[in-house]
Specification:
The complex is a heterodimer of chains A (360) and B (967). Chain A is α+β, with helices and mostly antiparallel strands. Chain A is built from 9 helices and 16 strands. The chains are: A alpha+beta (360), B alpha+beta (967). The complex binds iron/sulfur cluster (SF4). Chain A: Keywords: DNA-directed RNA polymerase, Nucleus, Transcription.
Chain lengths: 360, 967
């Protein structure tokens, strides 16, 4: 029993990549050719925030490298330095700065230069975007703030609780202040926050926040706020087949068993094998969540085989809203390519003996 | 969702569940009941757990502390001042002089700003200003001044620290908004004191009950009845025991030797052997057992009372300690000085030995009956050891609460004040020619009482000369690690047992603790089982007037014991009735008596916490009105139907009915541990039969506050629950709603605390949702073998970046600017001038909170002055400034000489030496707030708090306390 289960999880078609080791250069070339031939990308879903595509014919290491780069090495803009001029809100400066940093900023990182860390770096219009936030909750004279007033985000509270009202500060209160020639340079895509309705803080009457947030270009491995994606993940395409057919009543039970609706019934007509008439078939293997429900008990125990296709990745990229998911993917590939190039250069430099690299 | 713990307790396997706990007889009866299966369909009271919030509303979470304090300031303090030994002050120097206290009051909390002005304070101000939250105690007096009789009201004799949320506290009964105005957290339970700015709790102390007979085996294997007598004047312990298995003796510290018990009886006037035998019991077996003791006096040649007294008089230890500090020491002598050994023996017997049995005008009758009863029980137990009392049985325990401890202290201090006053009066009155007539009121020194209270609460050392009481660690600083730690501390019970003793008896869980004491919440290690926690609904009683109950007993047909002969007392048809350990009388129809008394209680005619318990084996009825008993509410059932109806529940929720009314009309009643023995308590409605007298309100009330936070505790291995109880208190989270303003010396505040996704009912009851601790983590559980690690969590860096487990650490740094006796005072000084950089722009460079560039900071160039950068011109650091290790926060300077008094000359200013307060810490931080205020002495106080952010689990070293298990 246990043996069959392990069998059920073995991935398919792994043999190709196991034999890289002993290849000659020419042979590698053919392998790469082969890869190039085989590698396909098929986009399943695509909108401004999410992208799902099939990466077919690639190695797991390649897919994982791509995923890691998506998460941690594609640059984007985020608030890095916060100058606090006034903060009488309940939030501490640190917390406020942290919250501001996490707000996705809609600005193309390609328009900016990276900035070296450290005191030597000077902020200028090419590496810094400035956002201002000046929010205060001032009650007019004689106003208690407890009356009904639904404008400018003031929540009025129940008078019975005698609680003072609050004013919410949202991401939309962050205002871009162009520096130098930024106004003309970035005219076609004005920097702004990606989601205007992110709550930053709540103010009570008399409280004020006046801060200046300086955006920098950075990558997710420095801080998650730079990560252009919420998640980037992949899974292998499930492959389900029958060791022997599941027929009749049992087929119905199998269809019911699967919570994801992977199986369907195929009508064999009256004259089917054993006269059962119906047979279970795998209709939507993509939807399988590998929950093992079909092989745990019931008709499928020894007849259904769960496997995965080793070189078929269902990749999904969820953008935080600053960059379109396909753009993030392209950037990621670019980063990967650059890495490979610099690795090659380093190896070649090492081979020439000038020791320039060594960092590969 | 099914109620988490209800499932545990309502499962049908009740009997086995409980037999683990022990074999209280009602449980075995319960098992019988189940087999009989006479249960009939009963109307189900839906959601009776909804009573719980009403209980908490009525009694509050920490009500026992507050109740006991209220009792002290409203009633007991008056009793102490009006006690015969304290009420009047006379002087030997002038027989005409007297001072009489007529009344005493505790005023409103205030603080003395200086010698003349005192102003009202809020507890919050006291915390910030390092003051004591206390109120003046004032007395009304009549006294003689010269020839006049003067009546004065409101003479202050001292200050008493006020318990928060008690009736004297300004927070009592305030609404949430009013509390917020006073900067007080509405969820704060109160029940603690603020002394010199520190919150301190008087922990509940568990003790063996006073004035009760406990029959145990001493270390020689003798059966011994130990009686701890305690009255306002004296505490003592006597043992009546069977020596070497034959003769009965009395042992008391005051007597150098064990005295044969019959000699004691004879000394108390019971000269006839027949009378003694009648009293002890005249069955043949009793006679056999008692005979050797009865013969004892004749071997010693004692027949008469005088001989017996002489014998005892010779045995009295001649220590001066027993005599008190002599005639001048008011109220400290335990008994009057006697001239002869006989008289001394009589005094000792009357007021020292078994002093809780009152002896009026040397009428020893009641005491004789009491002693005979004890002898009888000792001899019976000697024959049948199964009648030994269990010391660990919770009905034999009393919890000493803040009010009781304070009243002991107050009486001691008040007596001391009177002694001082008397001394002054003696001095003042003995002066031969006075220009003014002596006014004793002017001599009252308030600091005796004030400092006495503050000292005791601030250090936790309770030192009372009268009782030779010297206890340490009575108070503890209220831990404010999290809200739950604070609640957990308020329900904690400390045991008097030494922690080093390796005994298991007092440590193990007693079946009688069911519903009173939380079975899970106890520390690990040496204090295991000795430190306990109250269960959610448990309540600790305060003293109740016993005199009305006594009268009521006679009205209900009790015969006065002093009028009965021994044969009548011991008749098998009669039950003895005890009131607080004293024999009141006999009753021939005990069941009817008990039923009537309970009926009256349920009708609200007798105080709700009076307990009545029928003991069939001892053929006695025990009535208790004393304080410190633990009790818990139960639903009253009649004929298998709870008196609580769905209608009442609806009225309760709509506010038409209150819980107090339900208690008054006997739907719900408080039952203490002893009375529980007479009850048959159903755990759920489905188990109710006609024989049941009560029903549990909800099984979750078995657990305490902290254990109540564990989801699905009945699915855990039991020590896991205990571990969680210890860890839950350390969880980081929100301390109080006013946490950022409290300026605690160290505050770990979680930036994004979350309400738990899996909650328990207790959790809602204690407002944990409003003051959460911890975060809900999404945990992936990995393979069992392979690349796994044990007992550890790998955290995702991105989630930490996004704020998971992030906390703020706020640390208080404070200094006070003192004024010295010679007129010199500490000073604040601005940062030293930097001539080099003075001209380079001092422009308003904004402070940066999160910055990599230090460029903006290079205003000053002189590196030696870098440490003064955070200072403002007044010498105090500015809010928002960055502090590095060694940065000066408060640039204080102190005069070099504080001893000599040359300030007045004005020749040259006293030289100062710098005594700055600097920041120490490996990681830089920022100034969060600065507070300048003055303490009680009028000294200026500068407090600042600095914060640093940290990631949970890495910096705090506390790790991650997980509310384990779950689904
Ligand atoms: S593993 Fe689960 S989802 Fe996949 S086919 Fe089986 S039952 Fe359906």
């Amino acid at each position: 029993m246990a043996a069959t289960r392990i069998e059920a999880y073995r991935v398919e078609a792994d043999q190709l990549y196991e034999s890289y080791r002993s290849l000659t250069l020419a042979e590698v070339k053919t392998v790469v050719e082969h890869l190039r031939e085989k590698l396909r990308i098929h986009i399943v879903k695509m909108d401004v925030e999410e992208m799902v595509f099939d990466l077919i014919g690639a190695d797991a290491s390649f897919a994982n490298a791509l995923r890691r780069i998506l998460l941690a090495e594609v640059p984007s803009m985020a608030i890095e330095i916060v100058h606090v001029f006034a903060n009488s809100s309940i939030l501490h400066d640190e917390v406020l700065a942290h919250r501001l940093g996490l707000i996705p900023i809609l600005a193309d990182p390609a328009h900016f230069e990276g900035m070296l860390p450290g005191p030597a770096a000077e902020a200028n219009e090419h590496n810094t975007l400035v956002f201002e936030l000046d929010a205060a909750f001032v009650l007019a004279k004689g106003e208690t703030g407890r009356q009904k007033d639904s404008s400018n985000g003031i929540n009025t509270c129940d008078a019975s609780t005698l609680k003072a009202p609050t004013r919410n500060v949202y991401a939309k209160d962050l205002v871009w202040r162009p520096m130098g020639e930024q106004e003309t340079r970035l005219a076609e895509r004005v920097p702004q926050v990606a989601h205007p309705d992110i709550l930053i803080a709540k103010l009570k009457p008399g409280q004020r926040i006046k801060v200046e947030g300086w955006c920098r270009k950075g990558v997710g491995k420095d801080h998650a706020k730079y990560s252009p994606v919420g998640t980037a993940s992949y899974r292998l395409l499930p492959s389900i087949d029958f060791v022997e057919p599941v027929l009749g009543e049992e087929a119905d039970r199998l269809v019911e068993l699967c919570p994801m609706g992977v199986f369907d019934i195929e009508d064999l007509g009256k004259g089917g094998a054993r006269g059962a008439g119906r047979k279970a078939v795998v209709a939507r293997p993509r939807d399988c969540s590998m929950c093992r429900e079909c092989v745990r008990e019931g008709p499928g125990v020894d007849r259904v085989r769960l496997k995965r296709v080793a070189d078929h990745f269902i990749f999904s990229i969820e953008s935080v809203g600053t960059l379109a998911p396909d753009r993030v993917l392209k950037d990621a590939v670019r980063v990967l390519r650059e890495k490979c190039t610099s690795l090659l250069e380093a190896i070649e430099a090492e081979g020439r003996g000038d020791g320039g690299g060594g960092k590969g | 969702m099914a109620p988490p713990s209800a499932e545990n307790c309502s499962s049908g396997i009740k009997a086995s569940n409980i037999s683990n706990l022990g074999s209280n007889f009602f449980f075995t009866e319960l098992a019988d009941q189940l087999q009989e299966d006479v249960s009939k369909p009963v109307t189900d009271v839906a959601d009776k757990w909804k009573l719980l919030p009403h209980f908490l509303q009525l009694r509050g979470l920490m009500r026992q502390h507050i109740d006991s304090f209220d009792f002290f300031v409203n009633r007991e303090i008056k009793d102490i001042v009006n006690a015969a030994s304290n009420r009047e002050l006379r002087s030997e120097a002038d027989p005409k002089f007297w001072l009489r206290y007529t009344d005493v009051h505790v005023g409103e909390p205030s603080v003395d700003d200086d010698a003349y002005v005192s102003s009202r304070v809020t507890p919050f101000q006291c915390r910030l200003r390092d003051c004591t939250y206390s109120a003046p105690i004032t007395v009304d007096v009549r006294y003689t001044r010269g020839r006049q009789i003067v009546v004065k009201r409101g003479v202050m004799i001292g200050r008493i620290p006020i318990m928060l949320r008690s009736c004297k506290c300004i927070l009592a009964g305030r609404s949430e908004a009013e509390l917020a105005e006073k900067k007080e957290c509405p969820y704060d339970p109160g029940g603690y004191f603020i002394v010199k700015g520190v919150e301190r709790v008087i922990l509940m102390q568990e003790q063996l009950s006073k004035n009760r007979v406990i029959i145990e085996e001493d270390n020689k294997g003798n059966v011994s009845a130990s009686i701890t007598s305690s009255t306002h004047d004296r505490k003592g312990r006597s043992n009546i025991f069977v020596k070497n298995g034959t003769k009965v003796y009395l042992k008391n510290n005051l007597l150098g030797d064990d005295v044969p018990i019959v000699v004691v009886l004879k000394a108390m006037g019971m000269q006839s052997d027949q009378e003694i035998v009648c009293m002890v019991g005249d069955s043949p077996e009793m006679l056999d057992a008692f005979a050797p003791s009865l013969e004892e006096p004749y071997h010693l040649g004692i027949c008469t009372q005088a001989q017996a007294l002489r014998y005892i008089g010779a045995k009295i230890r001649n220590t001066t300690q027993n005599r008190g500090p002599g005639p001048s020491g008011m109220g400290f002598a335990f008994y009057r000085r006697a001239s002869s050994p006989e008289e001394e023996a009589r005094e000792v017997l009357a007021s020292v030995i078994l002093n809780h049995v009152p002896v009026i005008n040397f009428d020893f009758r009641t005491k004789c009956i009491f002693v005979c009863h004890v002898i009888r029980r000792v001899l019976l137990t000697h024959r049948d050891r199964s009648q030994l009392d269990d010391k660990d049985y919770y009905g034999n325990k009393r919890l000493e609460l803040a009010g009781q401890l304070l009243s002991l202290l107050f009486e001691d201090l008040f007596k001391r004040l009177n002694v001082q006053l008397k001394k002054q009066a003696d001095q003042g009155l003995s002066k031969p020619n006075r220009t003014q007539s002596f006014d004793v009121i002017k001599c009252i020194r308030t600091d005796t009482i004030t400092n006495g209270f503050i000292q005791a609460i601030a250090t936790g050392n309770w030192k009372l000369q009268r009782f030779r009481m010297d206890r340490q660690g009575v108070t503890q600083v209220l831990t404010r690690l999290s809200y739950i730690s604070c609640l957990g501390m308020m329900t904690r019970i400390n045991s008097q047992f030494e922690k080093t003793r390796k005994v298991s008896g007092p440590r193990s869980l007693q079946p009688s603790q069911w519903g009173m004491i939380c079975p899970a919440d106890t520390p690990e290690g040496e204090a295991c089982g000795l430190v306990k926690n109250l269960a959610l609904l448990a309540h600790v009683t305060t003293d109740e007037e016993s005199e009305p109950i006594r009268k009521l007993c006679f009205d209900l047909g009790i015969e006065d014991v002093t009028l009965l002969s021994g044969a009548e007392i011991n008749a098998s048809s009669n039950y003895l009735v005890f009131l607080n350990g004293l024999i009141v009388g006999c009753h021939s129809r005990p069941l009817r008596f008990v039923r009537l008394l309970r009926l009256l209680r349920r009708k609200g005619l007798v105080a709700e916490f009076v307990s009545v318990c029928l003991h069939e084996v001892q053929r006695a009825i025990y009535i208790a009105t004393d304080g410190g008993r633990v009790c818990r509410p139960l639903l009253v059932c009649e004929k298998g139907v709870p008196r609580l109806t769905n209608m009442m529940m609806r009225q309760l929720s709509s506010g038409l009915l209150t819980l107090a009314e339900l208690i008054r009309c006997g739907v719900v009643e408080y039952v203490d541990v002893n009375e529980e023995n007479n009850c048959l308590i159903a755990l759920a409605q489905t188990q109710l039969t006609v024989k049941h007298t009560h029903m549990e309100i909800d099984p979750l009330t078995v657990l305490g506050v902290v254990a109540g936070l564990i989801p699905y505790p009945h699915h855990n291995q039991s020590p896991r629950n205990t571990y969680q109880c210890a860890m839950g208190k350390q969880a980081m989270g929100t301390v109080a709603l006013n946490q950022y303003e409290r300026l605690d010396s160290l505050l770990y505040a979680m930036v994004y605390p979350q309400k738990p996704l899996v909650t328990t009912r207790t959790l809602d009851l204690v407002n944990f949702n409003e003051l959460p601790g911890g975060q809900n983590a999404i945990v992936a559980v990995m393979s069992y073998s392979g690349y796994d690690i044990e007992d550890a969590v790998v955290l995702n860096k991105a989630s930490l970046d996004r704020g998971f487990g992030r906390c703020l650490i706020l640390r208080k740094h404070q200094t006070s600017l003192r004024k010295y006796a010679n007129g010199a005072a500490d000073n604040l000084r601005g940062p030293p001038e930097d001539t080099a950089a003075a001209c380079s722009g001092m422009g308003g460079e904004p402070s940066a909170a999160q910055s990599n560039s230090a460029g903006a900071y290079s205003i000053r160039r002189d590196p030696r002055l870098r440490r003064f950068e955070a200072l403002d011109k007044d010498g105090i650091c500015q809010v928002g400034e960055r502090l590095e290790n060694g940065s000066v926060m408060i640039n204080k300077e102190s005069p070099i000489s504080v001893a000599d008094l040359n300030m007045g000359s004005g020749a040259d200013p006293t030289p100062f030496k710098p005594t700055p307060l600097s920041y120490k810490g490996p990681a830089p931080s920022h100034v969060d707030q600065v507070l300048i205020t003055s303490n009680e002495g009028g000294d200026l106080l500068v407090k600042g708090s600095a914060d640093a952010t940290a990631y949970g689990g890495t910096v705090t070293g506390r790790g991650v306390a997980a509310r384990r298990n779950g689904a």
